[in-house]
Write a structure and sequence with these properties.
The chain is an all-alpha fold and about 200 residues long. It is about 65% helix and about 0% strand. It has nine helices and no strands. Helix 1 runs parallel beside helix 9. The protein is globular.
């Protein structure tokens, strides 16, 4: 972490509000199961893509600070699509994947930051999983897990800095908390019928 950087009240609040939800999802992720294979990974990624596309479309409509580099951050659907194309799907197949009708939609920066906290934070765990799973799934690029690659840590720090600068009031912090919780719950509800267990982003 950058020297002198302090964890902000909003980051503490988001961690506290989502700790249990995050732990429950992590514990049941198919990505940590011993029977994970390419078919299970692809099935999971299809579901994640159907949730991520409408969520990112909503985030892209907000007026983000330039320093956040929103166009680069809210394009994770491309990583998911890259994994599916490598697995043999084509563009028509991707277009046919159903989008989640209940994906959380941000109405302002505070709710947007709450949702973004969930999807940005997931890149940290993805980096660990990439190292673990790439030898087991050699036929796939695992772009979604690779995420920002070597820039993952730096980008997370930058996100924290922007979060701290733009979500300051108690009302905005509560709104960010509710939006982050909604994102976790929406994801779990969307993927559970298909993958048979509750899974993390």
């Amino acid at each position: 972490m950058t020297a002198g950087f302090q964890i902000s009240p909003v980051l503490f609040a988001l961690r506290d509000a989502t700790r249990q939800l995050h732990a429950e999802l992590d514990a049941t992720s198919p990505l940590i199961q011993p029977n994970l294979d390419e078919a299970r990974y692809v099935r999971y990624v299809r579901q994640v893509l159907g949730w991520m596309r409408p969520l990112e479309a909503g985030l892209a409509r907000l007026q983000w600070p330039v320093e956040l580099e929103a166009p680069q951050r809210f394009a994770k659907s491309r990583w998911l699509e890259a994994d599916l194309l490598a697995a043999g799907l084509d563009r028509e197949d991707l277009a046919a994947i159903a989008d989640c009708p209940d994906a959380p939609q941000a109405t302002d920066l505070a709710s947007g930051f709450g949702i973004a906290y969930v999807v940005e934070g997931a890149t940290l765990g993805g980096a660990i999983l990439y190292k673990r799973l790439s030898p087991r799934l050699p036929g796939l690029p695992l772009e979604w897990l690779r995420g920002y690659g070597g820039d993952t840590g730096v980008r997370w720090q930058r996100f924290q800095q922007q979060l701290a600068r733009h979500v300051l009031s108690e009302a905005d912090i509560r709104l960010a908390q509710r939006s982050a919780q909604e994102a976790f719950r929406s994801f779990r509800h969307w993927v559970t019928p298909e993958i048979e267990v509750a899974c993390p982003i």
